[in-house]
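[Meeting: bench + compute handoff]

Bench side (C.D.) handed over the final construct sequence. Compute side (W.E.) agreed to return the predicted structure before the next meeting so the bench team could plan truncations. Sequence as handed over:
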Amino acid sequence: MSKINTSIITGFLGAGKTTLLNRVLTERTSERVAVIVNEYGEVGIDGKLVVGTQDDIVELNNGCICCTVRDDLISAIRNLLASGRPIDRFVIETSGLADPAPVIQSFILDEVLSERLQLDAIVTVVDARHVERQLSQDEAVEQISFADVVLLNKVDLVSEEHLAEIERTIRLLNPLAGIVRTNRCNVQASEVLDLAAFDLKNILSIDPFVLDDHEHEHDQTVSCVAFREKLPVDPALFNGWLSRLTQEIGKDLFRMKGVINFADEARRYVFHGVHMTLEGRPGKPWLTDDRLTEIVFIGRNLDEELLREGFLSCRIPLPALAS
């Protein structure tokens, strides 16, 4: 039985991992792809943003697959393999705070995964605009260090001189990985799939203890705050609050993302943010009974109560709706 090629898409928060995943799925529509999406918080946003496909999409929320939900990753893959459904490849999108080393360990040491899956490549998406600030986090350094391919994304937002400096920094962390410059992860699937690039010897040269049993410890000052709300949101109040928030605590906001139920809008509103950079667009149409705002903040020293009060102030109360 031939092994199933498996790609790991990693990268720090907001780098563009889901965008890359959607590029791959859109191009490889003839393949049966099993997708596993991991998010740090209990509210999963990325799984809702994956393009509509016939593929199996499994969401693993409320922890990173390098630690708290690592067993869930192994179980999810085992269940998909045992289901008997035909699978041409696996693509795994890690949390932006995941350390790749324990994930690699799972594929090598778990008997079923090592027998049935072939780890093809670790593809790390790097945010060219924010990478220097993000490298203060150990996870961002590890994601680049273990990469087989580095996708240097959002290159339109920085100068050529800055890009050259970023590439020199990447080369110091990982002299072997290929570097591909891109904007909005606009690459061919062949640039990130079926590369046969993963080499355990290279990984062991980076971390000789990668196969030892150890748990990844996250920065305890970094947390996730998430909200769900059925009442519709006022667009002007929400945009004003979000703008003020990024001005006040943007340096500590690693990631913001959400699907927003704006009042009187037929389509959901999808927004993303990294530090003080915000981007939003209309998303898929709402169905009659699925209108729900879901929003996630990940950052350092977040004040959950303050965030909650600000968010709730953007709701449209029931009496106003009735009138």
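W.E. noted at the follow-up: The first strand starts at residue 4 and ends at 10. C.D. will use this when planning the next construct.
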